[in-house]
Amino acid sequence: MGEQKSGAGSGAASGPASAPGGGTSAPGRGAKPASDPTLASRLFAELRAQIISGAIPPRQRLRVRQLAAQFGTGLSPVREALNRLTRDDLVSHNDQRGFVVSAVSEQDLADMIRARCWLNERALRESIALGGPDWEERLLVAFHRLSRLPRWADEAEGIANPEWESAHRAFHRALIEACGSGWLIGFCEQLFDVADRYRHIARKAAMARVRDEHRQIMEAAVARDADRAVDLLNRHFQRTAELCRAELQRRAAAVAPTGRRARRAKAVDPAGPPA
Amino acid sequence: MGEQKSGAGSGAASGPASAPGGGTSAPGRGAKPASDPTLASRLFAELRAQIISGAIPPRQRLRVRQLAAQFGTGLSPVREALNRLTRDDLVSHNDQRGFVVSAVSEQDLADMIRARCWLNERALRESIALGGPDWEERLLVAFHRLSRLPRWADEAEGIANPEWESAHRAFHRALIEACGSGWLIGFCEQLFDVADRYRHIARKAAMARVRDEHRQIMEAAVARDADRAVDLLNRHFQRTAELCRAELQRRAAAVAPTGRRARRAKAVDPAGPPA
DNA sequence: GGTCAACAGATGATCGATCATTTTTTGTAT
DNA sequence: ATACAAAAAATGATCGATCATCTGTTGACC
Lengths: 275, 275
Fold this sequence. Notes:
The structure is a homodimer of 275-residue chains.
Chain A: H1 39-52, E1 61-62, H2 64-71, H3 75-85, E2 91-94, E3 98-101, H4 106-130, H5 133-147, E4 152-154, E5 159-160, H6 162-176, H7 182-222, H8 226-255
Antiparallel strand pairs in A: 1-3, 2-3, 4-5
Chain A binds a DNA duplex (30 and 30 nucleotides) through helix 2 and helix 3.
């Protein structure tokens, strides 16, 4: 006896797929009959991807009827998918009050990152202690696959590259895979997903902020309000500089330790970019 | 902002409740209108309790129609409850193949216990480091409540005392509550539930084994098969003795360390009774 | 003006029927 | 007897209708 853990499936998000019309277009390859999974499972995967990617923002109410209409299905599969999503704390549910995309907060972020550090530390130490040559190889492969993929599908638009996301997950998993504890791995992956969501949301917010700044500057300029326009532009440059400064500090910190031994694991600043 | 974690509710299992007729019998106390929770939530709680207590054994298939009939409800609430149960890994699900109570295995037990030790260690250390006087007090209270409750509702029959179970959970939670990480606490509680299930299952199996041994001895005696009867009886005594021996060793070990310092946390034998 | 209550619309929860797939049974040929 | 295949039964998945509850609005009253 032994099989357990249906293993949340995770991995590759399907395409947009929102339009019900879909069907027979693009017969390109053999196009296996597909649709293996049940309708509820597809909805689950789709919603999960959208929530993690930030396409559906935190606090967003998930109305069953609306989603059913949007995906062109009945109510049951939606409800089922929603229920499954609560498993990973991506969605929360209140009796008689429906489903909501879980909120994010600075507090929760700090908590989550701390837990993530703890669990991954344990898992990584065990992995290093127990992992054999095969584990090393898998890790190298995972790293290689990750490093040759472009980070963004569209850098300017901040559209993530799904393949990179997938490889990123695979890399982190490969790190801890030899720890020998399915439970621990499961927890780590759950935290990975949540961290991923924060990452995407932050990115999204940053992009939106930049766009908004551009708009404000433009408006002030068109309105011939020189003072305001200049002020906004200056702030805009400042903010950009701050981002660069943070990055430079990071690089400097990476170079400096040449003198001393670079050991000393110590707790890393949890405020840093989750990666 | 901050509310998250719908918080699995856990706690007190309602009565058998299988009969739909139920209703107005035993108006004993005020009998508040109750039924606060949604139907699905009640099924969830009931099934969860039954699975953890071992009333529904591992590998048991959970057929939607059957459960619906048993509880006198429609299919939807059952399905919903089942889906929510997969959250805690108490139930697993395969597309088109329905729900099953998660299997148990020696391997999974070892894995789970190890993870449980790791996570609780971290949580406990943090709790001790961060917990204030209020935490201490709550812990003392939790311990006191637990220690004055009878372990069994019926020792001979091995029927657990629900209040004890509840206080037990509360005690373990109180221990780590001050660790400041909701995520970590959540994981620990999930593992608590799974460990609880193992505990109950083991107890149940032990009781069944004893009963079976009695029956076999009786049958051999009635059949006038002296050799077999005596052999069975001897083994029976041996087994009982082994249980006592294990207990005595535990007590001896607890007394011995008077000489040396009793520090040295070290890894505890995971095979011991999870408590 | 503000507060509360009745109302209406929206939304969640539940039901029973129906479709699709899996599992079991039954029958037949080797 | 065994193995395979078709048919039957069981079971999971999905649907749309319906009931219950919640939310926001309107309007009377203080």
